[in-house]
Amino acid sequence: MSKAAMKLYYCETLNPRKACAAARFLKADVEFVRVDLASGEQRDPKFLALNPNGKVPVLQDDAGTLWEANAIMCRLSDSVASDFWPHDHRQIDVLRWLSWDASHFTRHGATLWFETLIKPLFGGEPDVAVIDDAKTSFRLHARVLDDHLAKNSVAVGKTLTVADFALAAALPFATAAGIPLAEFRQIQAWYGRLEELDAWRNPFPA
């Protein structure tokens, strides 16, 4: 498979969003392949052969098949020789923020997104207790990021990295999902700069 034949399997949800945004931001030569979750395409044996977890995103390239959005962003960066996934002293710090984000920040933002916006699509009722707990936890960890961004324009170093896209994953839905983003001025300012990128605002194929 040539680099021009990279395939990125996606749908319009949180994790595929950051992978698609990274592909566009990096101008990586990928073919976008939409997976229809509503019809259960992710449970088809052909798709499970790509990702046994039955989830998107998935990247197919010369090196094989890769799942997990953060890893995909790193692979895409390497494919175009970008330092969006840095290979210098910044790399350990990027890994720290990716780990922290998955365990704390986007974890709670994604819970609010799911409870508020996704559950009702399938006839479920948002769980008020879960929402309240997620907001409390989000505020706790958002303060850590807000303090960091008071002294830094991006997550790591001086330029955007995969850490920024990972941290921002749930924030496009902040208003609709009730994520208390407005309480954190530095995060708002940092996120506003991301929103200036067309690749971030419009990550999915038309």
What can you tell me about this protein's structure?
- This protein has 206 residues and is an alpha+beta fold.
- It is built from 9 helices and 4 strands.
- The chain folds into 2 domains: 6-79, Glutaredoxin (3-Layer(aba) Sandwich); 90-201, Glutathione S-transferase Yfyf (Class Pi), Chain A, domain 2.
- It is 50% helix and 9% strand.
- The protein is globular and about 45 Å long.
- Keywords: Transferase.
Short description:
This protein is α+β, with helices and mostly antiparallel strands and 206 residues long. The protein has helices spanning 14-25, 45-48, 69-79, 90-118, 128-149, 162-167, 174-177, 185-195, 198-201, and strands spanning 6-10, 30-34, 58-61, 64-67.
Shape by Cα distribution: globular
**CATH fold description of the largest domain:** Glutathione S-transferase Yfyf (Class Pi), Chain A, domain 2
- Output the helix-strand order: EHEHEEHHHHHHH
Could you name the ranges where pLDDT drops below 50 across 5 or more consecutive residues?
Answer: none
Structural class: alpha+beta
- Name the beta content range: 5-15%
CATH architectural label of the largest domain: Up-down Bundle
CATH structural class of the largest domain:
Mainly Alpha
Number-wise, the strands total 4
Largest sheet: number of strands, sense, barrel closure? 4 strands, mixed
